[in-house]
Amino acid sequence: MARIQESKLRKIVRYAYRNVSLYRKRFDEAHIKPESIRSLDDLAKVPFTVKTDLRDNYPLGLLAVPANRLYCLYASSGTTGKPIVVAYTRRDLDRWARLMGRTLDATGVRKGDIIQNMYGYGLFTGGLGIHYGARALGATVVPASSGNTKRQLMLMKDLQTTVVTCTPSYMVYLIEASKAEGYDAKTDLTLKIGIFGAEPWSEEARKRIQDAFGLRAYDIFGMSELYGPGVGIECEQQDGLHVWEDEFLTETINPSTGEVVEPGKEGELVFTMLSREAMPLLRYRSRDLSTLYEEECTCGRYHNRIKRIKGRSDDMLIIGGVNVFPSQVEHVLMNIRDLGDQYQIIVSHKELDRLGIKVEVPANRLNDVNLMKRIRDDLFAVLSIHVEVELVEWGTLPRSEVGKALRVVDLRPKE
Ligand code: AMP
Ligand code: ZN
Predict the structure, then answer these.
(1) 251 lines ligand 1 (CB under 6 A)
(2) Which atom of ligand 1 is nearest to the CA of 287?
(3) Which positions ≥6 away from 32 have C-beta within 8 Å?
(4) DSSP 62-131
(5) Which residues line ion ligand 2, judged by CB < 5 Å?
(6) Model pTM?
(7) 113 in ligand 1 pocket by Cβ < 6 Å?
(8) pLDDT digit string (tens) for 148-165?
(9) pLDDT higher at 329 or 215
(10) Whole-number CA gyration radius for the chain
């Protein structure tokens, strides 16, 4: 593995330097020659890439290939109104599909399985990522996409779905919803495997899902910047996620100092993509906190494992799998006249994650339905999720006089 990684690393560093001006600039500023990155030990010399680099170079400033070689483009939410755009050549897409096939395979999915894919199809990489993986593996995919719970359950029963893929919060919701719709989750349905990710979840949620549906639930991790889902997956041991290290060279760093922490210690995950053509990413800071460890796994795979993602070192909220930065909400609100400066973001959970906003307005606008609708629509346009809006009177929201404003109230149960 180390040999594969080193030879790919040498190549990708030279490739990124030659073809992406940001990398050329960063290397030159740090007085590093790409040829001096020869072994895995040299990796720590390579400058980090961060999410704002992608945003600052919106939409396609980090391309390493001419635009006419792009096979597709995805966009994921960024911290302002503008998303982050991720680009794939045909080779990138093929590689991602193969990695996704390998990812599904690690959980025991086989040809003949019927995969009901309830991740959203569209700009979110979850939907098509699983879809391509199913094709690579030769399993049967049902591109159900997200939402429409009644139809999901009907298809699950009638098509005798064996594998489901969706956010863990949606699967927990399906426990109740299937009961309410009159299904016996164990005898009416034939689920064997569930693959859940895009947001943090817990052992407790795994237990509840497995008990209710009689399936085995696996954690899948990824992010749009790194192709999408399929960076890491639990194997049948359900004990940590194998990271596909022949493609994603993985380090953990101390998020405050940037120093590499040794395996077994918690830190921020940093990934170097070893063969991305359209948009190479070197030492990409994920902001996700986890622990990388090097123990052998009884499954026999020699890809190192990471523990469940513990949380993020930035303020990004994940609401039902959708990324929301508080700054996006602020950006929208501040662009609407007549709103006060004070607002509060309330995240709660009733069956599903919910996002609510309280915002201050003058007394005569408190019942202004048009204003409320405008706020809802503008937020939806940026976040792609429904927000419950409440108008409150000037001066009623808590002000913080010291330190950072406490704008986010997260009422979701911490498991
Ligand atoms: P996106 O760019 O929409 O694909 O979102 C990527 C982010 O979702 C990651 O950086 C993580 O913060 C979060 N995420 C994805 N998969 C998981 C998972 N299995 N557990 C916890 N967080 C996850
Ligand atoms: Zn394993």
Answers:
(1) no
(2) 10
(3) 45, 46, 47
(4) T-SS-GGGEEEEEEE--SSSS-EEEEEEHHHHHHHHHHHHHHHHHTT--TT-EEEE-SPPSSSHHHHHHH
(5) 235, 237, 297, 299, 301
(6) 0.89
(7) no
(8) 999 999 999 999 999 999
(9) 215
(10) 22
Side-chain-side CA neighbours of 27 within 13 Å: the count stands at: 22
Strand partners, 248: 273
CA distances from 148 to 84, 151, 156, 376 (A): 28, 6, 12, 21
Map residue 25 onto helix, strand or coil.
helix
Q: What's the CA-to-centroid distance between 379 and ligand 1, angstroms?
A: 21
Counting every residue written for the chain, the total comes to: 415
Ligand 1, atom 10, residue with closest C-alpha: 223
Distance CA 146, CA 169 (A): 12
Q: Are strands 266-273 and 284-293 parallel, antiparallel or unpaired?
A: antiparallel
- Indicate whether residue 200 lines ligand 1 (CB < 6 A): yes
Q: Beta-carbon neighbour count of residue 350 at 10 Å?
A: 9
- Residue whose CA is at the smallest distance from ligand 1 atom 5: 223
Q: Of the residues 288, 306, 307, 328, which should be mutated to test ligand 1's pocket, given the most ligand atoms within 8 Å of the CB?
A: 288
Does residue 223 have its Cβ closer than 6 Å to ligand 1?
Answer: yes
Evaluate the omega torsion of the peptide bond into residue 229 and state whether it is cis, within 30 degrees of 0.
no
| Residues 243-279 pLDDT 10s | 999 999 999 999 999 999 999 999 999 999 999 999 9
Position in ligand 1 atom list of the atom nearest CA 125: 4
Mean pLDDT of 206-225: 96
